[in-house]
Design goal:
By secondary structure, this protein is α/β, with parallel strands linked by helices. It contains 18 helices and 13 strands. The protein has an eight-stranded mixed beta sheet, sandwiched between helices. Strands 2-1-3-4-5 form a five-stranded parallel beta sheet, with helices on both faces. The N terminus and C terminus are likely disordered. This is Pilus assembly protein CpaE. GO terms for molecular function: ATP binding; ATP hydrolysis activity.
């Protein structure tokens, strides 16, 4: 917690103590505490008031669970609890009030999490695991910077062009290398690979959101998204293929809204059919990455998608990315002919690398992470730079030599990842 604390006592601290208002809550906590290697006798009755009285005369534990059900003023009472706890105590609260404003206020006061009663065993387990991870995590002072939100959609002209691969790599670059908190939203509800590419279980968050749009708020986002790292969280699904998606799109729009509040950057893996079904999804997206291949069918669909954007979202900055590009002799259509047919230049070309793609899949890592300094990853880094520049300056058309004073920015961090020119020359 971040509230004021008393000085630490020399007494040995317990790993876990809980204070529950009712026996039902206590009985739900005891077996889970045993699973974590904690004594079930550390689950006490009495709620928040008993916690304050007890901890005022004894050492606070490493992890403290406190029931707020009987509290008339949870925020004020939490501050009273902070006065009797020692620095470093991780506090998990529970209550019956389902209010995102209360959740945000409690988290802002310094608690780790707020769980709704009646307690869900899986949610409690996850909260305890995260609390233990927080205890062992290195404490870093993060720089707070007021930056505009960076929002992008990645769309494939055809199935199999690798749009999801590009989207996953962009999300990883922006979060793990660029340093921005990033929400990755995979809207292919039945066959999405966003979680799979990061070696994660997708969970039910996305399908729950579609079925119950009214539940979507900051608290829902916090619990539904699966963490890939400290900076990257994923909302994906593997919905049963015998269950068609029945939605008016309100759930998707609300998800985007909450992601803007929760993260510094949003990456949406957007199936092309969504453009037709839910055009409003693009209204607040700054950039759209159109992923294609050099084929006749892809050229036709690229023309149609570009025309759609011109009519429906002229404010969106577009980038054309040719992915999995084979040597010129093996192409169905040359780059020149492709660009002539769509009447614009291809912005980035990602070479085909079967070995790297297979290795990334085996490791459960994005191509950008598995490839490091490979020539396949270099254009992805350049693409990430350009997308960031749209959000930071509103113009991605500036030349590389015009990018000054960005050494501490995300753009500067991504630029630093590029292979040095002299190293590239040596390879030649």
């Amino acid at each position: 917690m971040n509230a004021p604390w008393t000085a630490g006592r020399a007494t040995q601290r317990d790993p876990f103590v809980a204070f529950a208002c009712d026996e039902t809550t206590a009985e739900a906590l005891r077996p889970i505490a045993v699973e974590q290697g904690w004594s079930p006798e550390k689950v006490h009755k009495g709620g928040l008031r008993n916690a304050v009285q007890t901890l005022s005369v004894s050492a606070s534990p490493n992890i403290l669970f406190v029931d707020l059900s009987e509290s008339g003023d949870p925020l004020n009472d939490i501050n009273a609890l902070a006065e009797v706890c020692e620095p470093g105590t991780i506090v998990i609260a529970a209550g019956q009030v389902n209010d995102v404003r209360l959740y945000r206020d409690l988290v802002a006061s310094g608690i780790q999490d707020y769980l709704l009663k009646p307690l869900n065993p899986d949610v409690v387990r996850e909260a305890f695991v995260q609390a233990q991870a927080a205890l062992t995590a290195p404490k870093l002072a993060e720089e707070t910077v007021d930056r505009p939100h960076c929002a992008m959609a990645v769309i494939g002209t055809r199935g199999g062009v690798g749009a999801s691969t590009i989207a996953t790599s962009l999300a990883w670059l922006l979060s793990n290398k660029g340093g921005r908190t990033t929400g990755f939203l995979d809207l292919d509800v039945h066959f999405g690979t966003g979680a799979l590419a990061l070696d994660l279980e997708p969970g039910r968050g996305l399908t729950d959101a579609i079925e119950n749009p009214s539940r979507i708020d900051g608290l829902f986002i916090e619990r539904a998204m699966v963490r890939a790292s400290d900076k990257l969280a994923v909302l994906s699904a593997e919905a049963p293929i015998n269950s068609p998606v029945m939605t008016d799109g309100s759930a998707f729009f609300q998800l985007q809204e909450e992601l803007r509040h929760a993260f510094e950057c949003t990456v949406i893996d957007l199936p092309r059919a969504m453009l037709v079904q839910h055009p409003a999804l693009i209204s607040d997206v700054q950039t759209a990455v159109i992923v294609t291949e050099f084929t006749l069918a892809a050229a036709r669909d690229a023309i149609r998608i570009l025309s759609w954007f011109k009519s429906n979202a002229p404010q969106t900055r577009l980038f054309i990315v040719a992915n999995r590009v084979h040597p010129a002799s093996q192409l169905e259509i040359s780059r020149k002919d492709f660009e002539g047919s769509i009447e614009r230049k291809v912005d980035f070309v990602v070479p085909f690398d079967q070995k790297l793609t297979a290795q990334a899949a085996k490791l459960g890592k994005p191509v950008a992470e598995a490839g490091k300094n490979s020539k396949t990853v270099a254009p992805l880094i350049q693409l990430a730079e350009s997308v960031v520049e749209v959000s930071e300056t509103g113009d991605a058309g500036a030349g590389k030599n015009d990018r000054k004073g960005k050494g501490g920015s995300l753009l500067g961090k991504l630029t630093a990842l590029r292979p040095k020119p002299e190293k590239a020359a040596k390879k030649k």
